[in-house]
């Protein structure tokens, strides 16, 4: 057992010494700061080889293996050790920044030729000759490929087993040559380079792009390791004038003058007449101008003003051109939305009452259209021109189901604003309950009726026997009238005609009846002196019984008080 331990310790020492020797010779004392080697002509380098020092952990792994208490077979222990050591080596190589360097002199050149309408017909054979010259002078290992482009790019196969340039022609198809997209052509060229070749692009174009961004794509090509060279056709370009853009301010106000900029391109110096239309009519401030165009881009400025809010379409047309090939690009149109004052529809059952709210809104720079409920718009198309709708103090019976449905569609589908303002008519009891407006409003219209309890309930008892004829009856009536005068209109007075149930009257009615009860005419007086106390207990918070009696009765007994 002791001999085995000595042998195991000697193995650990030998392994540690070998690791230190290799690191010292190839890493720590190496003449170059990198560790490199060549494999199949490709140079591999570790830019930070000192990370290989993790190999010093190998003796530690061997020591742990010898001291392990795991009951495993020796082959499994050895395999575990090798896997752990391999993990450490891979980790060291990853941290050492492994780089691969290869050297090549093979070049792949992609010729990208513009065949759009802005290129003269004479320039196309010149581009073919340039491609043929490249094919004739290239080394055997180099490659040459061809792309033609206008609005969209296309690859063109070389003729004669790749040794002869094909005829370069325009693309067939209506409108395919009316544009130029350099960016799309460069993006197609990236996919034609084979691996292991230097990447070169030769762009033959006048640079007049209508789509894409050639400058941005040139910067991206540099990131991909593609070198882009440009060649401009030497043939004179055909005479052409085109309106490329019509620029309006981002915000146009009603009644405020502003400038319109037109971007006009001319391939050569020429003259033209420009007409600017506002809608169907010529622009009011500057409608027609004579232009002296220079070769290249021209900025033409017009002044205009909008009198009515809404969508306004401007169109610029060029005519009387001395040298122009394509008439289709001499007109351009654009539309601007001119906001006006916000328009509010105010619906009120009483127009005179709505004038105060309308005046307040007008003072805040709103256009207010005041209408009665009967004049509410009959269609959503008519309603959509309003920015906001106010329904003020309008009873439900005057605002029909069709109008309520329009309001719901206006809010839900068009996103319009809606305000429901109540009042003595708008919030009438139960008027809007279970209606369309109740469903879209955040309130409930089923108000509960409150029964008010009168503060005072008065029972008048007057003797109509024979002893009350003459002045006593007049005094009794005057006393009853005086008692009724001090009551509020909501108080109750009780009286009757016979020995049956008493009839309940309000104070105002009794006062009127007493005022007319002259000359023995009708008077609400019961024929009995006893009044059921229950008649008043459930009516008023304060009950009182008063009487005008003959026969010397000074007060009543047994009456509820």
Describe the structure.
With 561 residues, the chain is α/β, with parallel strands linked by helices. The longest helix has 27 residues, at 2-28. It folds into 5 domains: 2-101, no CATH class; 107-231, von Willebrand factor, type A domain (Rossmann fold), CATH 3.40.50.410; 243-338, Immunoglobulins (Immunoglobulin-like); 343-440, Class I glutamine amidotransferase (GATase) domain (Rossmann fold, 3-Layer(aba) Sandwich); 456-548, no CATH class. A 5-stranded mixed β-sheet has the order 6-5-4-7-8. The protein is built from 13 helices and 24 strands. It has helices at 2-28, 58-67, 74-95, 123-137, 182-190, 214-223, 351-363, 380-383, 401-412, 436-440, 471-485, 507-516, 534-537; strands at residues 35-39, 42-46, 98-101, 107-114, 143-149, 153-156, 198-204, 226-231, 241-247, 258-266, 270-278, 281-282, 288-293, 296-304, 310-319, 331-338, 343-348, 367-371, 388-392, 417-421, 456-462, 492-495, 503-506, 542-548. The model is unreliable at 496-511, 515-534 and 551-561 (pLDDT under 50). Helix 1 (2-28) runs antiparallel to helix 2, helix 2 (58-67) packs antiparallel against helix 3 and helix 5 (182-190) packs parallel to helix 6 (214-223).
